[in-house]
């Protein structure tokens, strides 16, 4: 077994027993509901190498759900926006990489991948002067085959009454205006047009801004999504959210009281 990532075979041999010992420890922590402690085990150099080689890595998302039948007061952005399907003319403006960081360009590349996949349907939030400022996909069960191929089997198959929200992206010029919750709510409600009564989305555990935005739009955790690579095989499961993690979620996403 060769890694070819700047670590000698001697170093790998010395640490291999420790590595698999920590893998076992990680599974024990997961069984007890200690998701964050298990996650921390992947933060050293050897685990980074193992993740790149798909020998062992684990990622987690919150599975969040909104029931459209529930009464909910949609939040409003600081500017007026409306939502409509993505048009060809929107793409170059929304996905312009000029002046962006390497991390932001990576996100743009992901968005272009989704656009090129022809996944249905991408919606955009548009300002009063016609500028697209936010994009996100709302996908129904008729696209289950496309969801599986586009996201490499990561997301669960949608039921007849479900829709998936994925691929949220905000144009940098419009950040800080409260657009995400407003736009996301408007897009989620369009799920009723395709016969869905429940809308689901997935957000990584440490993406607090997105988690806050989703909570502000009426979404709450209903499951975890766990992707594990072990010896170059992928396993996707949806375990329940441990009570400890639910408490951390509530604290992290709670609205701060306004000061006078």
Question: What's the layout of helices and strands?
Answer:
Elements: H1 9-31, H2 35-40, H3 45-52, E1 56-67, E2 81-85, H4 88-94, H5 102-116, E3 122-127, E4 132-139, H6 144-150, E5 162-170, H7 179-189, E6 198-204, H8 208-216, E7 220-230, E8 233-237, H9 243-253
Parallel strand pairs: 5-6
Antiparallel strand pairs: 1-6, 1-7, 2-3, 3-4, 4-5, 7-8
3D architecture notes:
The structure is a single chain. The chain has nine helices and eight strands. With 260 residues, it is of the alpha+beta class. The protein has two domains: 45 residues, no CATH class; 181 residues, 3-Layer(aba) Sandwich (Aminopeptidase).
Calculate Rg over CA atoms: 20 Å
Number of strands: 8
Largest sheet: 8 strands, mixed
Helix content: 25-40%
| Number of discrete helical segments | 9
Distance between the termini: 62 Å
CATH H-level superfamily title of the largest domain: Gcn5-related N-acetyltransferase (GNAT)
Under CATH at level 1, the class of the largest domain stands as: Alpha Beta
Poorly predicted runs are 1-16
